[in-house]
Amino acid sequence: MTTFLIVDDHPLFREAIQIAVRAVAPNADIHEATELAAAIDMIAERRLGYDLALVDLTLPDTTGFDGIALLRRKFPSLPVLVVSAHDDAAIVRDALALGAAGFVSKSAPKNEIAKAISTVLSGGTWPTAPARAAPARAQGGDDVASRLSSLTPQQLRVLQMLRQGKLNKQIAHELDVGETTVKAHVSEILRKLGVFSRTQAVIEAARIDPAQFSEPTSAPTLRR
């Protein structure tokens, strides 16, 4: 029996996804979670694993790509199909770059969602290669560089530490500031880069030469 895990905090969307799943696998065993932490516990406890996890990008305990990145790190063999209302081409591309097996919009017709489920279950990816290549914002580095140039020296320093995988607590310790200060800078970084998660900010920054946004030698010290 094919087993699915639907991770979404909205009951209407969970119901709609269930309908699409049943169209592909009428006798499927479908489990549900409304938070990422609960989903992780369910995956860890299930000895036989899940055949496919269908995951929203925005959950009560995570936002953006952080949840997808965590799932891929903890359970690399579990196929993940992102089902999200945030569906511009850059978001699709970044989700696939992080290891999602597919991405389908919540606004897509149910038959398209069902086709995405079937494709990913068969070992394929969704959408197809031409769709994944569709540009959003700018494929080159010019647009990213322009947005990075709007960051202050302090924000560039914090972004560099985010790229190193450091947590807010570690950044605060190294810069000798409070965590609230670091959180404020991270929020501004996300706003200026036009993204909605730390992971996506790192992906955006990685699209250009890292030397263009290395820590400024003359940058003033962050203040509490």
Written overview of the protein:
By secondary structure, the protein is an alpha/beta fold. It contains eleven helices and seven strands. It has helices spanning about 10-25, 35-45, 65-75, 90-95, 110-120, 130, 140-150, 155-165, 170-175, 180-195, 200-205; strands spanning about 5, 30-35, 50-55, 60, 60-65, 80-85, 100-105. A five-stranded parallel beta sheet has the order 2-1-3-6-7, with helices on both faces. The protein has a two-stranded antiparallel sheet with strand order 4-5. α8 (about 155-165) crosses α10. The chain is elongated. The N and C termini lie far apart (about 55 Å).
Task: Summarize the amount of helix as a percent range.
Answer: 40-55%
Mean pLDDT, rounded to whole units? 83
Strand order of the largest sheet: 2-1-3-6-7
Please tell me what the overall shape is.
Answer: elongated
Count of DSSP strands: 7
Measure the end-to-end span: 56 Å
H and E string: EHEHEEEHEHEHHHHHHH
Low-confidence stretches: 130-140, 214-224
Q: Bin the strand percentage.
A: 5-15%
Number of helices: 11
